[in-house]
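Input record, target 12 of the design panel.
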């Protein structure tokens, strides 16, 4: 999950760095509570590190998704409580206010990140949001390879110099498993 969350965070933060005077709108699927919490936390921290731009970040998690977590496991309830404390949960079941936000003149970028696509009733109003689902993560962020993930995880244990082929083989194995529907990138 950590690799998946970091990949999404890096993509969103990179887009913020590249944007100049833009409003960026992303929508995430109804990912697990811990993943959406890590993404929100990572994006929030990443934006704070961008000191050369004024970026406003608005994160909204769908009401229906929160209701499922509220009736879920104790871990989901605990994470959901932290999401509420941070103000990320859409208590009113109305994401319209976030959908229609505009960048203020003194802002360099407005980032609107919604989560829980499958739990949003009016999905047709999200056409102008970039869908950052597993397919987009695989094709755009990972460029159809888990090599970066494998290198990142193994760097503490294996010197990449001289082990390039082994790293490539592991990445290819994960890619083949994923493409065959036998591996879930969220679980990697």
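The sequence produced for target 12 reads:
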């Amino acid at each position: 999950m950590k690799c998946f969350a970091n990949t999404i965070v890096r993509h969103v933060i990179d887009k913020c760095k590249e944007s100049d005077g833009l409003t960026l709108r992303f929508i995430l699927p109804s990912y697990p509570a811990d993943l959406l919490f890590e993404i929100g936390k990572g994006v929030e921290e990443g934006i704070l590190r961008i000191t050369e731009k004024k970026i406003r970040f608005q994160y909204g998690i769908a009401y229906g998704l929160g209701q499922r977590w509220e009736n879920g496991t104790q871990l989901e309830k605990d994470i959901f409580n932290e999401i509420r404390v941070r103000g990320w949960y859409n208590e009113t079941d109305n994401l319209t206010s976030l959908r229609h936000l505009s960048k203020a003149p003194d802002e360099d970028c407005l980032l609107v990140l919604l989560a829980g696509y499958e739990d949003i009733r009016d999905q047709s109003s999200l056409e102008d949001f970039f869908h950052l689902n597993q397919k987009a993560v695989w094709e755009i962020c990972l460029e159809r390879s888990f090599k970066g993930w494998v290198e990142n995880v193994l760097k503490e244990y294996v010197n990449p110099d001289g082990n390039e082929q082994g790293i490539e083989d592991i990445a290819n194995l994960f890619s083949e498993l994923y493409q065959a529907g036998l591996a879930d990138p969220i679980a990697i």
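The longest strand covers residues 22-28.
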